[in-house]
Amino acid sequence: MAYIQVEGGNPLKGSLVVQGAKNAVLPILSAALLHKGTTELSEVPDISDVRDTLELLKLLGCRVEKQGHRVVIRAEGHLSGSLPQRMVGRMRSSFLLAGAMLGREGRLETFYPGGCTIGARPIDLHLAGLRSMGAEYVIDRDRISLWAKRLQGTDLKLSYPSVGATENLLLAAALAEGVTTLKGAAREPEIQALITCLNGMGADIREDKGTLIITGVSRLQDSAYEIPGDRIVAGTILAAVGSCGGEVRLEHIEPEGLRGVLEALRQAGMELWTDEVKHTIRARAASPLPRGMKLVTGPFPEFPTDLQAIFMAMLSVAGEESKIQETVFESRFRHVKQLRRLGAEIEVVGDTARIAGGSTLQGGLVEAQDLRAGAALAVAGLAAEGITLISHAEYIARGYEDLPGVLQRLGAHVALL
Ligand code: UD1
Q1: For residue 164, how far is its CA from the centre of ligand 1 (angstroms)?
Q2: Which residues of 224-241 are buried (b: 16+ CB within 10 A; e: fewer)?
Q3: How many domains does the chain have?
Q4: Average pLDDT for residues 81-93, to the nearest whole number?
Q5: Does residue 387 fall inside a structural domain?
Q6: pLDDT at 142 over 90
Q7: Domain presence at residue 251
Q8: Do residue 385 and residue 312 come from a single domain?
Q9: Are 121 and 265 found together in one domain?
């Protein structure tokens, strides 16, 4: 088990090139499976979810070359294999291999996907869409076998804009026979990244008045794609500045993807300067404390659920009371107990947390129970007096590339133990 030690009380100062986005690269690694040739990716973050996904691609028969942040995937020949439960059980995104493998080989043997324990996280929307395209499946306990002849384009409508289901259906439709239309799709920037990458590979995907229109093609081509900056990592650093003070400049980040987040930070009193062309954000903390606010999480462009815990940490030291309503996942408040251990005054009623604000946090021993909850504890630790020790830091490494190193370079006293 890994620990992160954070000594609070030092403002963050300096520049940071934001890592490539976890939630963009994972579906794009599945997309690489669709092409019987070479896909070259740059700015791939060095995080454990990426390493695990590359292992899954290798198990299916792809050749993978990784050098720093550059990854080359060669997916020639016949791909097959049964994915091991211990690996797919770690990541929700492992199920994105279903759409890609059905499109490419018409078959996949896998298991129910894992990921952070933040709610029931069913895959009914994925399965219903794939079935409408002609796929069949059998579920036996956790084991899922899927097969299809050639997937057929059809008209699909999602009852909720699920990010994963949208991605799975885009992957399935890229090589399907005929045209697929998808209404009610998610609109997260990571969906746009997947579409841009797929179109660069030779797919034919366009949007018309909110409907995605995918015209199946019979083959794709070699391509190169740069993974955009991670808006959740950027939001984490900005919330850290909000909670412990300072001034930072972020590079390799598209401000548009953080619209709702920047609005919330401005409400908290932070000064922000954005450059849409250079892809930079400069931020100066509010003085002396962030202001309280009401936040409601929701599908993009609403406030991202992945920053809910992290903003709760920041708002624990705000001057006034705040309220955060979580509408995306039903049990995403496990961090509350840990934040309380550091002295935060938080009360949860139903889907809403009331954060009293005005708390002086005190360092202590806390446990990272999922990826973003772990990052929230690091943010709280930066604002706390004394030393905070975060156990199970391996959860944080699923999505953050060297978070301790990043914070240290910005002047914080943080170490990986
Ligand atoms: C993705 C992100 C995750 C983020 C989430 C919401 C990745 C790898 N993960 O997760 O970081 O928190 O989007 O922005 O990109 N749902 C169903 N049935 C389904 C699918 C989803 O009911 O078949 C529900 C979920 O239980 C949840 C809601 O829809 O309540 C949103 O889930 P979804 O958008 O699918 O999130 P993920 O793709 O799992």
Answers
A1: 6
A2: ebbbbbbbbbbbbbbbbb
A3: 2
A4: 88
A5: yes
A6: no
A7: yes
A8: yes
A9: no
Quick check: is 116 catalytic?
Answer: yes
26 lines ligand 1 (CB under 6 A): yes
Q: Indicate whether 210 and 265 sit together in one domain.
A: no
> Is 265's C-beta closer than 6 angstroms to any atom of ligand 1?
no
Q: Identify whether residues 196 and 255 lie together within a single domain.
A: no
Q: Of 62, 116, 197, 244, which one is the catalytic site residue?
A: 116
Residue 199 lies in a domain: yes
> Domain span at residue 161?
79-224
Crossing angle of the two packed helices 22-32 and 163-174, in degrees rounded to 10 = 20
Predicted structure pTM score? 0.97
Whole-angstrom CA distances from 341 to 316, 337, 381, 388, 391 are 12, 6, 11, 10, 14
Q: Distance, CA 161 to ligand 1 centroid (Å)?
A: 9
Residues 215 and 241 in one domain: no
Both tokens of 394, joined, read 């391996």
For the stretch 362-385, pLDDT in tens is 999 999 999 999 999 999 999 999
The dihedral through the CA atoms of 111, 228, 402, 235 has a sign that is negative
Confidence label for 118 from pLDDT (cuts 50, 70 and 90): low
| Ligand 1 center from residue 163 Cα (angstroms) | 5
Q: Is 93 in the pocket of ligand 1 (CB under 6 A)?
A: yes
pLDDT at residue 120 greater than cutoff 70? no
Residue 21 pLDDT exceeds 90: yes
